[in-house]
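Side project, low priority. Logging it here so it doesn't get lost.
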Amino acid sequence: MRSAFGTTFAVDGVYLNTPSIGVPPAPVVDAVADAVTGWGRGAAEPPEFDAHVATGREAFASLVGVPASSVVLGSAVSGLLGLVAASLPAGARVLTAEREFTSVTFPFAAAGHDVGEVPLEELPERAAGADVVAVSVVASADGALLDLAALRAEVGPDTLVVLDATQSLGWLPADLAWADAVVAGGYKWLLSPRGAAWMAVSERLAARLVPAQSGWYAGGWDAIYGLPLRLHDDARRFDLSPVWLAHVGAAVALPWIASLDATAVHDHAVGLANRLRAGLDLPRGDSAIVAVRRDGAAERLAAAGVRAAVRHGAARVGFHLHNTEADADAVLDALA
């Protein structure tokens, strides 16, 4: 059992794979376990989950810096961005970064739009010519950070900006509220069960979205049978029906993360990443994710019991709330 930031984690060994799946703190595990037990006993009532959904929505809005009324509920990033892609004019020009995570790019490509890739560092200066810029705030493959300030300065007034904050929200303090869409899955740095995802949408984007996938939840308990169409008048009109048990966990995880000192969280995670970089004679960075490009690195880490991932031939590690200096040193020992 580890103690960190006022809570405990039951993580075993050296776990550095948060960019793939986060390790929840004990209160999140307990909340989900209790809900599963109640479900198994036949004690669950559907309306009881509404409070969990609302709590998670409000905490996500707080993390992004937007009103809760602008937040759409989904189950995965790709599904939420599919809603955006389907609402664009045919053949829209979409700009993204090279090696972007495909949950960001595939919805636009599958909808038949003209999706162009450029190096991440060149994206801001190329943004003005696009109808849509769709990109991750932090790259999944290697942890590279998007220059948000440069993008905001260079983007054209008619260009929609869609940001995937899945690999940043939870450790990277950043001004995201200016974007037209900020989407994130909850099962990585937000330490929630898979099946909870959210998207904050600007008023101008919301006016263009078609609620084509909306079901009863987009209208509420008074809209579960029969016509006419009746949906909520805010972003909830685009909601998918929630994955209930996922939102039980999110309702504990997100408010707790939102309550933490964001600077302290950032300095903790990036500080550990820089401890590793220093030991590997790499330059200091500003990301909690480190891509280790050394022959046999992934195999050595696995042999030493270090949980990591392999992306584009590099061993990818990520430092979050539960990690310690000993975890960074374990990587160095394994690679020595």
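Brief comment: The longest helix spans residues 262-279.
Revisit when time allows.
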